[in-house]
Every structure is written in C-alpha cells, then in structure tokens.
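Dear all,

This email documents one entry for the complex benchmark we are building for the journal club exercise. For each entry we list the sequence lines for every component of the assembly. Then comes the predicted three-dimensional structure of the complex as a token string, followed by one or two observations. Please use this as the template for your own entries, and keep the labels exactly as they appear.
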Amino acid sequence: MEKFEKLSGVAAPLPLINVDTDMIIPKQFLKTIKRSGLGVNLFDEMRYDDDGNEIPDFVLNKPAYRNAEILVAGENFGCGSSREHAPWAIKDFGIRCVIAPSYADIFYNNCFKNGILPIALPQEQVDILMAEAEKGANARIEIDLEAQTVTTSEGEVIRFDIDPFKKHCLLEGLDDIALTFEKVAAIDKFEAAASAARPWV
Amino acid sequence: MSPKTLYDKIWDAHLVHEAEDGTSLLYIDRHLVHEVTSPQAFEGLRMAGRTVRAPDKTIGVPDHNVPTTLDRAKGIENEESRIQVEALDRNAAEFGIHYYPVSDIRQGIVHIVGPEQGWTLPGMTVVCGDSHTATHGAFGALAHGIGTSEVEHVLATQTLIQSKSKNMKVEITGKLAPGVTAKDITLSVIGETGTAGGTGYVIEYCGEAIRDLSMEGRMTVCNMAIEGGARAGLIAPDEKTFDYVKGRPHAPKGAAWEAALAWWETLKSDADAHWDKVVTIRGEDIAPVVTWGTSPEDVLPITAKVPAPEDFEGGKVGAAKRSLEYMGLTPGTPLNEVEIDTVFIGSCTNGRIEDLRAAAAILKGRKIKEGLRAMIVPGSGLVRAQAEEEGLADIFQEAGFDWRLAGCSMCLAMNPDQLSPGERCAATSNRNFEGRQGRGGRTHLMSPAMAAAAAVTGRLTDVRDLMKVDA
C-alpha cells in the first residue's frame, strides 16, 4: 500500500452532509473487475449531465479544483454501501485526504486500506477549513500525519486524532494481510479450540 | 465475571488476538461473497500466490448483476455484468468455495440465501462485501459489511482486524398496530436516530414488538441497521430462531444440534449489562411510514405532509432543500397525494416469503392502477418456488405485477431493472439515495404491504385504508 506521510495541496469544498457512496461512485461503475480507472467517474452524477458533459458549477470541474488532493465535506461522509470503489475512485482522481466532521464506519475503514487519510474534526474546525478551501488554488492546506496536524494557508494549525494502529499502517504503507500472517500460529490455535468447542461451525 | 451484552459474548468467543491498543483479530465463521465486491480480492490472492484459508466457510452467489427476466438462461447481455458473474463462477471453482450459480434454484440475494440454506447460525461471526450483511444479525450473529480489501483479508486469513464498537440497545415496547410491520419499525428507528445515530455502535434490538416478529421480520429490522450507521444490528436468538434454523441444509443435526442449542440458549445480554446508548420506542406509536427525501432518515408517517427545509436545523436545511428538489416535491403536500409511476417489491430487506404474503394479502382480488409499472422480485429461487406453490404468484400476475426471477434487481439497478430520470417509485428496498435506482429516479421506501397499496391506487397510500380489519 502507498504510504501517507505529508501532503500539501488544494482542498475542494463539498459542503454537503450525508454524502453517500452512490454519489461518490454510482453503481454502473461497480462492474469493473479492476481497482483502477474510476477517478474519471468520481461523483459522476453530480459532475456530468445526461449527455456526459461536465457541469461547470460542480466543484471538481472548476479550474481551481481540478487537481485537488484534499476534499472537505459535511458530516457522515461515505454513508451507504460497503463498495471500496468509493475510496478507489477518490484516490484515482488524486485525492489523498478527506476532512469531515464524521464518517460512515465501513467507508472510513476502507480509506485506510488504500492509502487515503480520512480526518475527523469538530464542525467548527471543518468550517474553518471549508472557508479555506473556498479560496481555491491559492490556498494550499498542509497535512502532516506524523504530527497529526492540518495547517491552513494562513498558518493556523489544527490537531486531529487518529487510531495509533491505523496511523502506523498508513505511515509505513503496511499490508494488513502480511501483518495478520505474522499471527498465523494464534489463528491455528484459535481454530483448533473453536472447532472442538463449536464443531457445528 | 462482569455482565456482558450479546455483542460482548460473540466478540469474546471469536477473539483470536488483542493488541494493547485494543486492535483485535476476530475469527470469521461465515464469509459470503458476491460478484461485485470480490473479483479484485480473488485477483489479489492470485497475485500473491495465496489460497482461501477456509473454503468450507466461504459461500458464493451472484446476485447484484443478474437479470431477473424469465429469459435469463440465454445469458447476460451487458458485457461488464457478464464478465463479473463469470469471474465469480471461475473464482468459486478455482478456490473451491461453496457456490450457487445463476442456474441453481437456490440462487438469490446473498443475504436471503445464507439464512435459507442454514449457513447463518446464532452466535456466529458473518461478513460479506456488502453493507446489508447486517441482515444476519436477526439470528443473534455478529454480521457486518466489509470492503474488498477486507474480503481479501478474510479469504486469506479467515480473520478480520477490528476495534470493538460500543453497545446500543434499541427497545421497541408493546404491540404493533394493524398495518404496521418490521419495515415500519426499522425506518422509524432511523427516523428517530438519524443515519449517523448508530455510527460506532452495534445495536441490539429487543422488546416485545421485536420478540413478536417472525424471523423474516427480524431480518428486515437488522438489514437496515447499516442505514442507521451502526456496524451491525442483532437480536438475541429464541425459540423462533431455533425453529427457523432446524432442518436447514447446513444447520447442525443430531448430537451436534443439541450441543449447538445448549450454547445458543446462553446467547442473550445479561440483565445488568452496560449500554452506551439506549433508544426506546413504543410499538403503539409506530405508524405505517414512507420516506420523502434522499436519505433513509427522511421518514414520516403516511398521514403526514411533505416537510419544508425550514422544519430542520444545521446542515439538514440545505440537505432537505436539495432532497425536495431532487424528489420533485412541494412542502405541505399530503404524502398520500403523491402519485407514483412504478412499484418495486423485493430486495434483501423485503424479498422473503412473508413479504410476498403481505403484498399478496393487499393485492388479492385487486388490480394495479392502469399505466403503472410494477414488479415483484423474489429474494431467491426457493422463495419464488414457494410463492408459486402458495398461489401468491397468481395473485401478483392477476393484479398486473411482473413476476420475476431472483436477484437484487431494482434495489440498486446494476442489472437492467432501473428507473428513468424523474420516474417515481414505491420501493421496499433500503436506500433512497439520489440515483440509487437509476439516474434521476425518485425512491420512496416503505413496507411490502404499503407498496402493494400504492400499486392499487397509483399514489402513496395508507395501507390501513385498504385493509379489512375485523373489529
């Protein structure tokens, strides 16, 4: 997995609550058997009209945000389905960090498996960053995962919390499966004991 | 020993390893896979030269993409859909997992097939690359959706890296009024707590109204736990659970049954267990409900009116405005005057036999409103066969419904069953998100009986108006 250490980039403002995974990547794009190539369809139904033309008003179509690497959004971001196509599409577009007051559980976990940092902050601080994002390409936001800070273009430093294990995996770009294989003896032992205790499973 | 919730007990029974920071490795008893979220996971295994650790605990069935028209034996027209289903066919054979192909009568929606075949049992951990895995919680199993990377992790290791959720109790007291169903319970709970109200929690549903539900109804309630943001929803197993499970193809038999039963009977929250959050709703207060917006929390009794953005606070004001615009609704309009174009009865939420019986009870001897498009998609081939045996299929067809083969169908519209822009649908599925049932499609969620009533009148309808209630 790609490491996440520091990021300095333009943040796109998406001031909507309950952004669901159907919005992030509509179902017609779930038919792929690959992980890549979904960026062009990120937010497809908000981004393109019925004829496939870009809707100029949508944030990622605006010149200032076409290369955004950070997304600032409202509460309960990523609610709905478990589709990992949502973080795949976000990453494929070039966004490596999402900032919102809260996330849906499965989406949040899926981000970490793909080198994306989802930062949860209180609404007031998200409001500050949303205003910052509204400034466009001249306002670059800096993220430092090791230090757990977000720094605005004006130098305001905002600290964020993150689970230490998830932070460690993201900083090192660790592969979960390889990590779990290190505990294979414990799995073997559990499996033997469980199949004696609950043989019907 | 300190008192425990049901969730605590299942968690403890599956804990392989716990790190100092609480990061845990949980053993997975059943892994269900479908064609949409698994191809990249199997490909990952192949690339790394890994195998499926427990193929005998892994069950595959194609459901999202499959056509539901009667001629589906001729194959899937859409090339991408076909490739995805063929990939699952191939992966199931290559990795040696249990498999129900499209041609098998037992094929259906993964969350209907699992319980039907006896794969889902009380006290188990069940995962699937699908958020509606919560359905299996109805058996007192810890069941939740996972992403594709986690699917690959479970395939390779039969475990999942987890941190423990908090405990939330949702109690539905008393009795439900006539015309009120499990779907009305689960929607009403989300209406009360919001779509993020359950985030960080595992919900245990309890109370007299939950106990009174059949297993089908309990599955409907747990199915939508995810719509309330919870990781999982569960219900303690009881006699109804054991009766449902007994005799299913993969349920334990003989001495194994007795041993299993002895453990299952212990699977309940201790009386003095700690709850981090408690929500109590009186069963008598629940009405037949519909959704008016584009979030499952946008729930109102059918007797209410379309709300206005000013009725809300904070970010919800803008969200409601956007929803009303998308839904083409005017504040103040009585909900039962909203005309519909289409009715969809089916999905993992409401595609079981009891759901079809409830719809048939309303549709018997009636016709759908002229010009309406209406389809019933059973949740599995076996549900379809049973409905035909019980004469329900005849009732549906005589009423004017299209009687389909099993699959996810118009719940998420990955197959050809889709809404057109602006088309308004009374649906028994689980999500009313923008574009969910087709780009520009407008979804109102409700129970099967309410959807059947809407089919008869051509508008959102209070099912109680069509019920003959004996005094």
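Observations: The domain at 18-164 of chain B is CATH 3.30.499.10 (Aconitase; domain 3). The longest helix of chain B spans residues 79-95.
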